[in-house]
Design a protein that fits this description.
The structure holds two protein chains of two kinds.
Chain A (H helix, E strand, L loop, with lengths): L1 H4 L2 H56 L3 H9 L7 E7 L5 E6 L17 E5 L2 E10 L2 E10 L2 H32 L1 H20 L13 H97 L2 H31 L7 E5 H18 L3 E6 L5 E5 H17 L5 E11 L2 E9 L7 H5 L10 H7 L5 H11 L3 E6 L5 E8 L13 H9 L6 E8 L3 H13 L3 E5 L2 H11 L1 E6 L8 H10 L8 E5 L4 H7 L3 E4 L4 H20 L29
Parallel strand pairs in A: 7-9, 13-14, 13-15, 15-16, 16-17
Antiparallel strand pairs in A: 1-2, 1-5, 3-4, 4-5, 6-8, 9-10, 10-12, 11-12
Chain B lengths: L2 E5 L3 H13 L3 E5 L2 H11 L3 E5 L7 H10 L8 E5 L4 H10 L3 E4 L4 H15 L1
Parallel strand pairs in B: 1-2, 1-3, 3-4, 4-5
Chain lengths: ~675, ~120
């Protein structure tokens, strides 16, 4: 409302003015009403007296029915300005004589019947009825009517005076209140000004001036106290702000310095990585340079040994064998150094595949029999029934077991070497545990300290007596770490030793050690769980003899073989293991080879897996049409299959690793000697 | 008597390998670089070729490719000898059409097995 939004000044003035005017009006009105009421009473008494006088005077005329005399008496009323009508009624109610002011005829209005003695107000007129009597005899009734002219005039006059008076006094009240409202409004306005100044200029040093000790004065006091507090806080805030600014600046400088340091560190890291790469290249080249003469040394000594044996000079054979042994030892050393340098450079990748643990153990024991017999040891193997398959880097698992077992053979004489394999559960995950125990010379507490360190054979005399590079356990340790496993040893000098290796039953790239090299990180990031297994071939055939033959042959070529007995199982396994390639029979019950091929090639995840048809059905065109890579007719020519498989391996490994392979290095992370493709080369650690 | 062509630039290795192969009863022809190897393969028509991959003048894989592209020599089995274990060398050799490969230093027993295998298949 507009009234509510008026300034305090206006409101105060208005309130004062209204109040005083209202009081004045009320007072004047009550005074006026009192005056008018008493004046009217006075008028009625006066009219009654007139009626009495006129009644008395006209009694005689009424008695003698002298109408002119009565009319004359009534005419005397002319002197009375306010009497408009005077009528004498006979007792029967008929008019006897009358008087009207202004005209001689009867007025339109006359009382319809006679009323009691006394006065009454009717229709703005004052009327009086008076009985005319003579000596107690009722002669008639007198009626007088007054228009109260005097009273109306008086009322009008008074009203005018009142209006003028109220106006004048209102004006006066306005002036007075305009002057006086300042007492209240001025401090408030001042407070408002001060407030505005503070908020506009943000100057908390300003204070409002207190004029009076009233509520406004206290308000100003409170306001000032508040300002003081704000000012204080502002000061504190500003100083804190200043500190903050300084601190921020310091921090920025620090960040700048750190960035610089970081850059320097990064440069240093790059330099170090460069140096490391150079070292790796050097090592790789050196190993090549060392191998060439070694090649000649080992080759010529082998040749000489054969020739010497043929010519019967047996006494020289032993010496030649020693040269060969030294050469082979040197070769093993070079290989181990190369392995270690690869691990250190983070180039030792993992090639995960699913394999049968028992099968690996069997091969291992067969391979190690000669080494065991050398010191007249016997090997005892126990594989728990609950151990079946594991997913890990088979080559590294082999090398771990080979190192531990050949060490056991080496340091035990006429004793027992036992290998126990079991499955254990730790924190809800399955682990495969390999335990290699011997009854050999054992390891002392001091020797244990740096058992897994490079070039730390128990002591020099042992190196002389037993040979070895001193790198076997270090490499074993690193391989176990690479697969996120654990290796521990329990032993006392002279009491034999027990090495325990625990590996996750399912090694994944996530759980596997992420090596510091950037390239390797990229590799592990880019390879999902379902990475193509470059060493596994899926054989789909319903004929058990074909499955067996294929498995044997492909295993010989160093592939891991998974077999499926029907089409559905084949498709399921293909999705699960994503093999390097699939060999597929055509004639199978239920889901035939054509259907399987069609489904394989229509699955975007599987379409890239090459399929070699191996069948008696001679329909190469159809096979190739459906997307098969090659078509072999049973009985299969093994060499043809071997060439095809190898070609696919090369093609697939290059397409899969092209984007992230380390070009300089020994490449796909496989130990050097794996590339020969046979296991014979691994028996070099003896 | 099967004839083997040995293409190898290192004199000692060439000498040693050829002598050991001869002792095994093979007749051996040698070449010390790729170009000579290629011309000898064409003129001698050996039963098998042992091919060092890192050769001067013309690389072993290139020689192999020429031989495998030629109808006259395509049938000759070739064993690549990858001097160092560079995977790329091995891949190149297989790609070029080598039938087998081995890593140096050569384990003679193993190599003879491979030679024997390929010669048997050929028959």
């Amino acid at each position: 409302m507009i009234l509510q939004d008026l300034s305090i000044k206006r409101k105060l003035t208005l309130i004062t003015m209204l109040t005083s005017s209202l009081a004045l009006v009320l007072f004047s009105a009550s005074f006026l009403i009192y005056d008018l009421v008493s004046f009217r009473h006075l008028l009625s008494q006066d009219l009654m007296t007139q009626a009495e006088i006129i009644g008395y005077n006209s009694a005689g005329a009424m008695e003698f029915k002298d109408e002119p005399a009565a009319t004359a008496t009534l005419s005397a009323l002319t002197a009375k300005e306010d009497i408009v009508t005077a009528v004498l009624y006979k007792p029967d109610g008929k008019i006897f004589a009358y008087y009207f002011r202004g005209n001689a005829s009867l007025p339109s209005y006359l009382p319809s019947h006679l009323k009691e003695n006394g006065y009454r107000f009717e229709g703005g007129y004052l009327e009086v009825f008076h009985d005319v009597t003579l000596n107690g005899e009722h002669l008639g009734t007198l009626f007088l009517q007054s228009d109260m002219r005097q009273w109306s005039q008086r009322a009008r006059r008074y009203a005018n005076i009142l209006i003028v008076f109220v106006l004048v006094s209102g004006l006066f009240a306005f002036f007075v209140s305009s002057k006086l409202q300042g007492f209240i409004s001025r401090p408030i306005l001042h407070l408002e000004d001060t407030m505005r100044m503070v908020s506009v200029n943000k100057n908390y040093g300003v204070r409002a001036v207190k004029t009076y000790g009233d509520e406004i004065g206290r308000l100003i006091d409170g306001f000032n106290t508040m300002l003081a507090e704000i000012q204080q806080r502002d000061t504190v805030l500003q100083s804190t702000n200043g500190e903050l600014k300084t601190r921020t600046q310091e921090l920025e400088e620090e960040i700048f310095h750190r960035k610089q340091t970081q850059e320097e560190l990064l440069n240093a890291k790059h330099a170090a990585e460069e140096a490391n790469r150079a070292k790796s290249t050097f090592l790789a080249n050196m190993s090549h340079e060392l191998r060439t003469p070694l090649n000649a040394i080992i080759g010529y000594s082998e040749m000489l040994e054969e020739e010497t044996r043929d010519s019967g000079k047996v006494e020289n054979v032993q010496d030649l064998k020693k040269i060969q042994a030294a050469g082979k030892h040197l070769l093993a050393l070079i290989n181990d150094v190369l392995d270690l340098s690869k691990i250190e450079a983070g180039k030792m990748g993992l090639h995960l595949e699913t394999f049968d643990v028992a099968q690996v153990i069997d091969e291992m024991v067969t391979t190690l029999q000669p080494a065991a017999k050398k010191n007249a040891n016997s090997i005892r193997v126990h594989v728990d029934e609950n151990v079946s398959v594991m997913r890990a880097d088979i080559t590294k698992v082999r090398q771990i077991l080979f190192n531990l077992l050949s060490n056991a053979c080496k340091f035990t004489d006429h004793g027992i070497i036992s290998l126990n394999v079991g499955q254990i559960k730790v924190e809800g995950k399955n682990w495969i545990q390999f335990q290699v125990s011997d009854t050999g010379i054992g390891i002392s507490a001091k020797q244990k300290e740096n058992l897994f360190q490079e070039f730390a054979q128990a002591d020099a005399s042992i190196a002389r007596k037993y040979g070895g590079t001193g790198l076997g356990l270090a490499i074993t340790h690193r391989f176990v770490q690479l697969m996120k496993g654990k290796i521990t040893v329990e032993s006392e000098a002279g009491q034999g030793a027990t090495f325990t290796v625990q590996l996750p039953a399912q090694v994944t790239f996530e759980t596997a050690d992420s090596t510091p090299s950037e390239e390797t990180n990229v590799v592990s990031n880019n390879l999902p769980e379902t990475k193509t297994d470059l060493e596994t071939i899926l054989v789909i055939d319903d004929d058990p003899s074909v499955r067996d033959l294929m498995s044997r042959f492909l295993t010989k070529l160093n592939f891991h073989v998974v077999a499926a007995t029907n089409g559905e199982e084949g498709l399921r396994l293909a999705r699960k293991i994503r093999p390097l390639l699939i060999t597929l029979d055509v004639v199978m019950p239920e889901c035939d080879g054509w259907t399987v091929l069609n489904r394989l090639k229509n699955d975007p995840k599987l379409a890239e897996i090459p399929v070699i048809m191996v069948t008696v059905v001679d329909n190469e065109a159809r096979g190739l049409d459906l997307g098969a890579s090659n078509y072999l007719i049973k009985p299969v020519q093994r060499d043809r299959l071997a060439v095809l498989v190898e070609k696919h391996r090369v093609a697939r490994s290059s397409t899969i690793t092209d984007t992230n392979s380390a070009p300089l290095y020994v490449g796909d992370g496989q130990p050097v000697r794996e590339t020969t493709g046979t296991r014979v080369s691994r028996i070099r650690r003896n | 008597m099967p004839k083997i062509l040995l293409v190898e630039d290192n004199e000692m290795n060439r000498d040693m390998l050829s002598r050991r192969l001869q002792r095994k009863g093979y007749s051996v022809v040698t070449a010390e670089d790729g170009e000579k190897g290629l011309s000898l393969a064409r003129s001698e028509m050996p039963d098998l070729i042992l091919m060092d991959i890192s050769l001067p003048v013309m690389g072993g894989w290139e020689v192999t490719r020429h031989l495998k592209a030629d109808d006259a020599t395509r049938h000759i089995p070739i064993i690549a000898l990858t001097a160092h274990a560079w995977v790329t060398d091995r891949e190149k050799a297989i790609e070029a059409g080598c039938d087998d490969y081995d890593t140096k230093p050569v384990e003679f027993v193993r190599l003879s097995e491979k030679i024997e295998n390929l010669l048997t298949v050929k028959k």
